[in-house]
Amino acid sequence: MTTLTLYTRRDCHLCEEMKAVIREVGRTVPLTIEEVDIDRDRALVRRYGRDIPVLIAGGQEVARHRVTADRLREVLEAQTAGHHGE
To answer: What are the residue ranges spanned by the domains of the chain?
Structure first.
């Protein structure tokens, strides 16, 4: 199972769109999501500012602002394949 980290904030329509895509993919791909409200951490506000949402998988940024379900599935499949090859 892959854990995704989503950097987000309240009242962010792009964040809501990305969450919906993640939920859609999560119906067929095992994953968990950790949401991090950047407004609770000054360092994250400085790092991302208004440049959110940011989606992290396997320690790497995989999307900023928007992601499609197909792209997210590709990323998750590639990461799963990479772990099997180790």
So the answer is: 2-84
- CA 75 – CA 16 distance, rounded (Å): 20
* CA pair distance 22, 58, nearest whole angstrom: 15
Has residue 84 got a pLDDT over 60?
Answer: no
Contact 58, 2 (CB under 8 A): yes
Q: What is the CATH number of domain 2-84?
A: 3.40.30.10
3-state helix, strand, coil in the chain (%, to 5): 45, 30, 25
Tokens of 57: 């998988």
What pLDDT, on the 0 to 100 scale, is given for residue 81?
A: 77
> Looking at this protein, which amino acid is placed at residue 20?
A
CA distance 32 to 36: 13
Q: Is residue 33 over pLDDT 90?
A: yes
**Residue at token pair 């997210």:** 72
